[in-house]
Write a structure and sequence with these properties.
2-enoyl-CoA Hydratase, Chain A, domain 1, 6-stranded mixed beta sheet, 3-stranded mixed beta sheet, 12 helices, globular, binds ligand LGD76KDA, transit peptide, ClpP/crotonase-like_dom_sf, delta(3)-delta(2)-enoyl-CoA isomerase activity, isomerase
Length: about 290
C-alpha cells in the first residue's frame, strides 16, 4: 500500500496541473447510509459523517463503508477530510462489542480485516485529515481520531484507549498511532490505566489540539487547519506525512495475518468472552 501511495504521488506530480483544475463533487459511500459524505465545492474538503445510531459502534458494515469512502476520497484526490458523527453525544463508541462476543469465525475475520483496512487507509492517507470529535470517543472511536492529523473536541466529553478496563490489550496498531500523538511516557501511562480523558485533560496532554463549543465550531476549526495546507505542495505534504508514519504502516502491512490470528485467538479465550459478556450486561443495565 505504501508503494502504491508513492506511485500515486509520482503520477500526481506528473499530472499536477490538471489535478489542480479538478473540482470534486459529492458522492455517497455505497448502498447503505452508514457514512455520509459532503464535499464543499469551494474548498474541496469532505465532511465524512459516521451515521450508525445510537452510538456509531464500528461493526463490519460501518467499517466496510468507511473503507470504501476512504478509497473514493483518495481516487478523487481529496483536498482534505473532516471526520465527525451524526450523534449529538457520541463520536464513536469504538468497536462493536457484539462483533467480538460469541464470534462467528468468517465474520470475525472479515470484521478485523476491515478494521485493518480502515486503519491503513486513514493513518496513511495522502490527503490531510482532521477529526471533529463531537461526542464521547472511547477505544476504537479514539483510534479513528488519532489516525487523523488534527483533533478538535467539543467540551464535556471523554476520549481514550480504555481497552485494559475491558480486560483486553489495545492491539499494536492502536498503540502505534496513540504514540504518534502522545509521548511514550504519557501513552504508556494512559494505555496501562485505560484512561478516559475529559476534553480539557485531553487538550492538556496533547491528545486533542483544540476545544470547541459545539459541532459546528469543531468542524469550522478543523476546516481552518486543513485550509492551512493551501500554501503547501500537496505532494510534499503527503510524502512527509507518509514518511513519518511509514514504520507504523509497514509494521501492520507486513504482519496482517499474524495480527488477525492474535485477534481471533484473543476473542476466543473463555476469559475474554466472560469479560465481554459482563461488559455488555453492564452497558445494558445503565
Ligand atoms: C489479554 C491480552 C490480549 C492481547 C492481545 C490483543 C489482541 C486484540 C484483542 C481484541 C482487541 C479488541 C479491541 C477493542 C477496541 C474497542 O473499541 S472495544 C469497544 C470499547 N467501547 C467502549 O468501552 C464504549 C462502551 N460504551 C459506552 O461507554 C457508552 O455507550 C457511550 C459513552 C459510548 C455512550 O453512552 P450513552 O449515550 O449513555 O449510550 P448507552 O446507553 O451506553 O448505549 C446505547 C446502546 O448502545 C450499546 N453500545 C454502547 N457501546 C457499544 C459498543 N461499543 N458496542 C456495541 N454496543 C454498544 C449499549 O449497550 C446500548 O444498547 P441498548 O440500547 O441497551 O441495547
Amino acid at each position: 500500500m505504501i508503494r502504491n501511495s508513492i506511485n500515486l504521488l509520482t503520477k500526481k506530480l506528473i499530472s499536477s496541473t490538471s489535478c489542480q483544475r479538478t473540482r470534486m463533487r459529492c458522492f455517497s459511500s455505497g448502498a447503505t447510509n452508514l457514512v455520509d459524505v459532503n464535499v464543499n465545492d469551494k474548498t474541496g474538503i469532505a465532511v465524512v459523517t459516521l451515521n450508525r445510531p445510537p452510538v456509531n459502534s464500528l461493526n463490519l458494515e460501518l467499517l466496510t463503508d468507511l473503507s470504501k469512502t476512504l478509497d473514493e476520497l483518495e481516487s478523487n484526490r481529496s483536498k482534505g477530510m473532516i471526520l465527525t458523527s451524526s450523534s449529538k453525544t457520541v463520536f464513536s463508541a469504538g468497536l462493536d462489542i457484539l462483533e467480538m462476543y460469541n464470534p462467528e469465525p468468517e465474520r470475525s475475520k472479515a470484521f478485523w480485516t476491515a478494521l485493518q483496512d480502515v486503519w491503513l487507509k486513514l493513518y496513511g492517507s495522502p490527503y490531510p485529515t482532521a477529526a471533529a470529535i463531537n461526542g464521547h470517543s472511547p477505544a476504537g472511536g479514539c483510534l479513528l481520531a488519532i489516525c487523523c492529523e488534527y483533533r478538535v473536541m467539543v467540551n464535556d466529553f471523554t476520549i481514550g484507549l480504555n481497552e485494559t478496563r475491558l480486560g483486553i490489550s489495545a492491539p499494536s496498531f492502536f498503540i502505534s498511532s496513540f504514540r504518534n500523538v502522545l509521548s511514550t511516557r504519557e501513552a504508556e501511562k494512559a494505555l496501562t490505566l485505560g484512561t478516559m480523558f475529559s476534553s480539557d485533560e485531553a487538550l492538556k496532554v496533547g491528545l486533542v489540539d483544540e476545544i470547541a463549543t459545539d459541532k459546528a465550531d469543531s468542524i469550522n476549526k478543523c476546516e481552518n487547519f486543513l485550509l492551512e495546507f493551501k500554501k503547501v505542495s500537496s505532494m510534499a505534504r503527503a510524502f512527509t506525512k507518509q514518511s513519518l508514519r511509514k514504520k507504523d504502516l509497514e509494521e501492520l502491512e507486513n504482519n496482517r495475518e499474524q495480527d488477525l490470528q492474535l485477534f481471533l485467538f484473543a476473542i476466543n479465550q473463555p476469559i475474554v468472552q466472560k469479560g465481554l459478556g459482563a461488559y455488555i450486561q453492564s452497558l445494558k443495565k445503565k
